[in-house]
Write a structure and sequence with these properties.
Elements: E1 11-15, H1 23-33, E2 37-42, H2 46-55, E3 60-62, H3 65-71, E4 76-79, H4 86-95, E5 99-102, H5 110-123, E6 127-129, H6 137-147, E7 154-164, H7 175-178, H8 185-197, E8 201-209, E9 227-234, E10 239-245, E11 247-260, E12 263-267, E13 271-278, E14 281-288, H9 296-307, H10 315-334, E15 338-339
Parallel strand pairs: 1-2, 1-4, 2-3, 4-5, 5-6, 7-10
Antiparallel strand pairs: 7-11, 8-9, 8-15, 9-10, 11-12, 12-13, 13-14
């Protein structure tokens, strides 16, 4: 991989500038903060292209990826499109000589991930996924406390999210497009899980409930599962669980419970709680989580491209949550546990 002399030499662009969450703007703004230079936007909606030119005056605009790759000198592209398009777009951009960052999830299937990784290796280009929550204050605080030995040996982690309500009528509610109910917030929670567990995955079991909401949204039989649950077993005997549901009667937004031999550590995005048995008493310590340091994602990309700093969200790291969810979906269908395979 050839290096750039300085971050400003890296010309960056996005594929997808849709209005939802203003993610195209957010990616470009974070790239700029890391010192890179905004260059191009590709978007099907002409109205969103107008917005892009207002927010980034002088930026190149394209309505097709083919045209952008043919005409633009952009070096690094962020793919911000529906989940089922990440793999083909990433391969297309890599083959055209561009470094690539995919919005999470990396892709939908393990095979797609492996194809992307193979292409990146053959082209000697950077491939990563926007796991900006790797630097969320809640997980950084959790890792700090847990690795200090405060709860002893960790043997179980439970992560849950959801509430009771009908899925929205958008592509994220379509299983064939989104991958299923586990692929959106589930990837974030698995990111936290793997940072804390820090062990090799050996096998995955999955469970799913479908059918309750399917006739109430426009996606009909292609609607995401109402609820899905998975269990991961790690080398050494520890395990973790993940549950995402639209059938929870008591909403839980990103709740994680880590259990160890000397106590437990519970957290959500805002607060944490450490519970430690001390003889006949139990000591509970609570606090607020520090702020996110999500800007470090693109700073790491820029540093990797200029000075060769180690890429934190590597393709193998990005592949892991997708592989686990893919195995869980297969396991739910087959009714048996499946072994994990590393790259």
């Amino acid at each position: 991989m050839s290096k750039f002399a300085k971050a400003s030499d890296i010309k960056v662009g996005v594929i997808g500038y849709g209005g939802a969450f203003n993610m195209g703007r957010a990616h470009l703004q974070e790239m700029v903060k890391a010192g890179m230079t905004p260059c191009a936007v590709c978007e099907l909606d002409p109205e969103r292209l107008k917005v892009a030119t207002q927010e980034f005056p002088g930026i190149e605009t394209y309505t097709s990826v083919e045209e952008m790759l043919a005409k633009s000198k952009v070096n690094l592209l962020a793919i911000i499109t529906p989940h089922n398009t990440h793999a083909p777009l990433a391969v297309q951009c890599l083959k055209a000589g561009r470094h690539v960052v995919c919005e999470k999830p990396f892709a939908i299937t393990t095979d797609e991930c492996d194809g992307m990784i193979d292409t990146a290796c053959k082209t000697d280009l950077v491939l990563s996924t926007y796991h900006n929550r790797h630097w969320d204050g809640c997980v950084l605080q959790a890792v700090k406390v847990i690795r200090s030995g405060a709860i002893g040996e960790v043997y179980r982690l439970d992560a849950h999210m959801g509430g009771w309500g009908q899925p929205q009528d958008w592509w994220r509610s379509s299983k064939s497009i989104s991958g299923g109910v586990l692929y959106d917030w589930g990837v974030h929670l698995l990111e936290y899980t793997f940072q804390i567990m820090n062990a090799e995955i050996t096998e995955v079991s999955g469970f799913a409930k479908s059918g309750f909401w399917c006739d109430k949204v426009k996606w009909a039989k292609d609607t995401n599962e109402d609820e899905a649950f998975l269990t991961v077993r790690y080398a050494g005997g520890a395990w973790s669980t993940l549950g995402i549901s639209s059938l929870y009667s008591r909403p839980r937004q990103g709740w994680i419970d880590v259990v160890g031999t000397a106590g437990s550590y519970n957290f959500d995005y805002r607060t944490w709680e450490l519970v430690q048995p001390k003889g006949a008493e139990t000591v509970t310590t609570k606090g607020a989580n520090p702020p996110s340091e999500s800007e470090k994602f693109y700073q790491n990309i820029a540093d990797h491209l200029t000075t060769g700093t180690e890429l934190i969200i590597s393709p193998s790291w990005a592949r892991r949550p997708v592989h686990v969810i893919d195995l869980a979906c297969q396991s739910a269908t087959l009714g048996r546990t499946l072994a994990a395979k590393y790259r």
